[in-house]
Amino acid sequence: MKNPLHVYGEGWPAGPGWGPVRRILAFSSIWRSERHRHLVFERFGAVPRSTTAVYRKRLFPLPMAKAERKRRRPRRVAPPGSRAAQPGPRGALNRRKERHLDACLDGAVDLGRDSFAAWALRYRALPELALADVSTEVEFAGRKVAAPFIISCMTGGVGSRFERINRNLALGAEALRIPLGLGSMRVLLAHPEARGSFQVREWAPTVPLIANLGLVSFNHGLTIADVARVIELARPDVLGLHLNALQEAVQDGGDTDFRGCIGKLEEILAACPLPVYVKECGGGIAPELVELLAALGVHYIDVSGADGTSWAAVEASLSADPSFGELFRDFGLPTAWLLEHLPGTLAGKAQIVASGGIRNGIQAAKALALGARHVALARPFLVAAEQSAEAVVALGRRLMRELRTAMFLVGVDKVSGLGREHLIDRRGAW
Ligand SMILES: Cc1cc2nc3c(=O)[nH]c(=O)nc-3n(C[C@H](O)[C@H](O)[C@H](O)COP(=O)(O)O)c2cc1C
Hints:
Layout: H1 4-8, H2 18-26, H3 34-44, H4 52-59, H5 61-72, H6 92-105, E1 119-121, E2 138-140, E3 143-145, E4 149-151, H7 160-176, E5 180-181, H8 186-190, H9 195-198, E6 209-214, H10 224-234, E7 238-242, H11 245-250, H12 261-271, E8 276-279, H13 287-296, E9 300-302, H14 311-318, H15 322-327, H16 335-340, E10 351-355, H17 361-369, E11 374-377, H18 379-387, H19 389-410, E12 423-425
Parallel strand pairs: 4-11, 5-6, 6-7, 7-8, 8-9, 9-10, 10-11
Antiparallel strand pairs: 1-12, 2-3
Bound molecules: flavin mononucleotide.
């Protein structure tokens, strides 16, 4: 290699030991600008004779040649149909899930709507109760849990980020004694290396776990046999199935063939040994579908209304044409409206879960008074789990305290005691 001194002429310090210094000086990363480089060279008494490109080429012909060779090397393309050509978790699907996390951690995708503001809790100045006697305990999937809160289904995939978030959620759920939902496990079926992120039983041995698959995925490759594989791996108490037509329709290349999903659900219900939990993802399940799901024998129906995380907004943030998804940002049915219009009686053992934008214990109390048996939250727990398991516990404890206080203030000492008589319809009431 040519000595840099020969390029830049006299004036440069020479002698043993100066070689590395000259090299460091020559690397452009230390110059704030081309002007800065010129000034320093002048100070040394050497005149830079070339632009950055030429000087790099002269000083560092070997690395440049290597970089050039690399640039010109033809890219390897996986043969169509091969496994490498599939959207692997290290590739498209995993990256997508990571981008979902990033988008959800950014509050911009949260609608921040409080449809429960239409209701006030009927305050009792003399509750005739001791706050200490108010219990938030309920039962979920045959297990006693500390409160009607559920950490809603979120994530899972290949890599330490997913494992860390799910471990924090699981440790938090166990400490809080509340149920935990897992994120969609479809990724696992094609890529078993994602299993670590879903095997949270060791962190949450005693609380109810909800596995999760998309119902529409059974129109796009999943089979009933996959349900058994998911159950074997995650050892859940409940099988969750999500409905997400809004998300898929807004997503570039989403799974949009929803024909025959009711039939698929019937098959799953007949084959699944666990209670089934059907949920939306922030678009809402309208009353007539709630009624149908209950009649089919679904055990838990999570209405997941359009008050909180907007999956249209999440997908918009990932799309080449964000304005399309943004148009559908608050499409869907508000959570409190869904609860207000629940069918009077539900067939079978169906229990309603309220979710979508629930952010505090007062909203939870209103949801329970409107007919929900449980309340699920997703994004707030994600934000906490991104920090630590302790943050998840702190959030859960806070929610429980808020709910217990609201119950005390309306004079109710157990969750099942909450009812519509504890609500005032604010619209027109004052
Ligand atoms: C990061 C993230 C990932 C999610 N992934 C799933 C999922 O895999 N399956 C699912 O059923 N719901 C998923 N959801 C939707 C939530 O379970 C929930 O229905 C929705 O976010 C509304 O609740 P929120 O307003 O409290 O966030 C996800 C939510 C978040 C924030």
